[in-house]
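Lay summary. Proteins are chains of building blocks that fold into shapes, and those shapes determine what they do. In this project we predict the shape from the chain. Here is one chain we studied, written as its sequence of building blocks.
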Amino acid sequence: MSGQNTQTTPVTVAVLGLGEAGGAFARDLLAAGAAVRGYDPAVPAPAGVQAARDEADAVAGADLVLSVNSASAAVDALRAGLPGATAETVWADLNTASPGTKRELDRLAGERGVPFTDIAIMAPVPGRGLGVPMLASGAAAHRAVTTLGELGASAEVLDGAAGAAAERKLLRSVFFKGLAAAVVEALEAGRAAGCEEWLRANIVTELAGADESTVDRLVHGTHLHAVRRTAEMAAATQMLEELGVEPAIAAASRDLLSRVSAGS
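And here is the predicted shape, written in a compact code that computers can read:
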């Protein structure tokens, strides 16, 4: 990796959560010359990572904490780790949690005088490791990004309080994960109707033909034809039910179009 740490005393990083993302980060941090302490109740520490007894033990003496477990565990991990932190410890939460949760984490850390930053991972970690694009917000964002940058990470500071980075990531997720869900549901229905390959080819053609005007066309068309499209998606919802496919996305699209037509 590029960006080898040149400090005389290695930076000490605590990684909480050693699953797919946390494990990859821990290995890359070691390769970059950091001293890495790790804790995960379910996953053993990778070779070279100093295994800790618990969160507070992992955090003790760390310059930077990377909490990479899950949104549901983020608050508990912070509460458990704070006893090991000091005012010199930067706590970075990389979990995909809501902006409100990130603000709550920032508040809890601030009550103990621990600098906090919200870091959003903006692409899949496998194959990228610490080089995955990241956004950081909050009072300690610059400190965290500087430290991570010296270790080869690809992180950018986003102006704003903790939660701003999570907001950007989740807004993007509404589109990407929603698109993925629509494709999965459509292909399941196509399979049930006996024309999955035809539908797959149609989807590929539409995605490949997207350009800068696509978003404007989609938004304009939705508002202009909301009434007609509400009826169309009601029929699509009924069709999926007849095919034995749960119409989660089709029904949601019908309801959104109905709301748009009512407001137009």
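What the prediction tells us: The two ends are 54 Å apart (CA to CA).
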